[in-house]
Structures are given as C-alpha cells and as structure tokens.
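Please describe what follows:
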Amino acid sequence: MSRNIWLTFEEWTAIKEQVNPEEWWCYELSAQELKEWKSSIKRGYGDQWCFKRAGVPTKVLNKLTTPYLYNRLLQENYRGGEMQDMFIGTHCFESFDEQSLNNFISWATASVDGVDMNTTKEQWIAYNKALRIAVENSNKRVIFAREMENLFRSVTVGELVQSA
C-alpha cells in the first residue's frame, strides 16, 4: 500500500540529489508545484509537502547514501498499529530480511522518542538482533507497545555501551 510521505524542502532536495532521477519518480513535482511550495515557505506557511500515495520504493532507498534520509523516509512510511514482521534472521530469503529490517527501522524511528536519525544500517542490524534476543528471552506471548519501546531502549543502550 502506498503511503502519503511528508518531506521538508531540504529533505526533498537532498533525496533528489542522491537519487538523481532521470525520469518520473514518486516524489516528482511539476514546476508549478515547486513554485507553490517555495512561495508557501517564504510566507511561513510550512516547510513540508505531502507526496500523496508516493510510498517508499526500494529503488529509492537503495540509492540513498545518507543514513538520515534513509531513516527519515522509513519513518514516514510507518503507520501506528502496524506491527509487521521486523526481525531479521528468521527467514530463508534475504529479501525478506531486508524488508523486515526496513519495517524495524520504520517502527523504531516513528514510535520511540529520541531515536538517533543518523543511525547506520549496520547499527540497526545490531539493534534488531539484540531486540529479537530480548523479546525471545522475555518468554511473553504478547508484548505491548510500551514494553517493546522500553526493550528497544534497553538494548540500544546496551549496544552503545558494548561498542564504546
């Protein structure tokens, strides 16, 4: 399902530079829309633009080199209440692991306050594995959202201490 994606002008410009689309892409703006956006920024009406039903295509994500932009797009892709499969290493296909990691990043960046938006993919993988172990060790059949957030905070602090 495609999502509405809200981006600031700076984010959109940086994504466009990194993706360098040669043809139409999901965050395309006509000259008129771009003019309207710049005008509304000047008037102080807001810096964000809604890209309706744009979603976050894998081909766009794969071209991004900045962790902040990668995480930011995935943050926009998350919708509350969607606890999709988000643990890697539980599938027989790598493509499922990639999607699970993206689901995990979407959940964490949108649900947990204070997440570092410059977290690299390698750090996310370490956090993901640590959280999966913590969930398995909890021996609970159901983990509520607040508990999951607290588990995430505890494993990320633990991972940061171990890497220091």
